[in-house]
Amino acid sequence: MAQQGQQTKMEQVYQYLTGIKFRQRVEAVVEKFNDMREDLDRERKFMGRQWAKRETQILSVIESTVGMVGDLQAIAGKSMPEIPSLDMPLLEGAAQGERQVS
């Protein structure tokens, strides 16, 4: 009796796996995964554009600030205090970032 019940269940599983309902369910899962992948790709592209825009804005602010300080140093000369954060490492970092954006 138990073997007959097991055989019936195996037949039911086989019928399910070879039937249209199983295929439709698997297709639905794959479709949702593809939708999620497309959404993720769109988000990645959007964020990449946003980051590039923000980086360009930051570089522009750095260049403007450095230019303004240079103008003031030309006017005030040695009496203007040094600004350590505008030393060469920052300028080199900005130039490297600029090269990567271009």
What does this structure look like?
- The chain has 102 residues and is an all-alpha fold.
- It has one domain.
- 86% of the residues lie in helices and 0% in strands.
- The chain has 3 helices and no strands.
- The protein has helices at 2-18, 20-76, 88-101.
- The longest helix has 57 residues, at 20-76.
- The chain is rod-shaped.
Summary keywords:
single chain
Instruction: Please trace the helix and strand order, writing H or E for each element.
Output: HHH
From the alpha carbons, calculate the radius of gyration and give it in angstroms. Answer: 32 Å
Major sheet: none
- Tally of distinct domains: 1
- DSSP summary, beta strand count: 0
Strand content: under 5%
N-to-C CA distance: 77 Å
Poorly predicted runs are none
> Helix count?
3
Quaternary status of these chains? single chain
The residue-averaged pLDDT reads: 86
Percent helix, as a range, is: over 70%
Shape: rod-shaped
Structural class: mainly alpha
Please specify the SSE layout and strand pairing.
Blueprint: H1 2-18, H2 20-76, H3 88-101
Helix pairs in contact: 2-3
Short description:
It contains 3 helices and no strands. The chain is mainly alpha-helical.
